Amino acid sequence: MGGMDNSMGVAGANTMGQSPGSRESYFGIVPGIYPAARDGHTCEISDEGLMFVFGGDRHLMPFNDLYLMNLKQ
Q1: Across 22-43, average pLDDT
Q2: In the chain, at which end, N or C, are there fewer CB atoms within 10 A of the end residue's CB?
Q3: Cα separation of 40 and 68, whole Å?
Q4: What is the DSSP letter of 15?
Q5: How far is CA 36 from CA 10, 28, 32, 47, 57, in A?
Q6: How far apart are CA 54 and CA 70, in angstroms?
Q7: Angle value at C-alpha 67, between 10 and 43, nearest 5 degrees
Q8: pLDDT over 60 at 72, yes or no
């Protein structure tokens, strides 16, 4: 969910990149409001399949926000 591709300067903030508990990646559109492209953030996945993304920055613009995604839906 989100992130930056520095090789091309492109932000893909509405894509999901890795399946929980797996090393396989996939991409698809994530509905709803999603975080802006960022780096330096914290991401945690709970045992219930909830992914939390907190903070980070984008070109010296800090974020102090929290996003939640239910990976089981």
Answers
A1: 75
A2: C
A3: 17
A4: B
A5: 12, 17, 13, 25, 9
A6: 15
A7: 75
A8: yes
CA 65 to CA 28: how far, in whole Å? 23
The CA distance from 57 to 16, in Å, is 19
What pTM does this model have? 0.61
Distance, first Cα to last Cα, the chain: 14
Task: Judge whether 35 and 70 are in contact, CB under 8 Å.
Answer: no
pLDDT band at 46 (very low <50, low <70, confident <90, very high): very high
Q: State the pLDDT at residue 9.
A: 45
Pair 24, 36: CB distance under 8 Å: no
